[in-house]
Amino acid sequence: MSRGDKSAYTDKQKRQAEHIEESEREQGRSKDDAERIAWATVNKQDGGGKKSGSGRKSS
């Protein structure tokens, strides 16, 4: 059950999500939970899909 449009993500982010999802499945999570966790992790690491600018916040 894919949520949202994943076209804004880079190929690297998609590969990362796939790898995380496989890892979660190996730990016994359902497909939906594994996918949700994988994309949440990618979003947390990279701030979501491709965006303009460097993606870094100024402090």
Automatic annotation (TrEMBL):
Residues 1-59 are annotated as: Disordered. Residues 1-36 have a biased composition (Basic and acidic residues). It comes from the Bacteria. This is Transcriptional regulator. It comes from Luteimonas terricola.
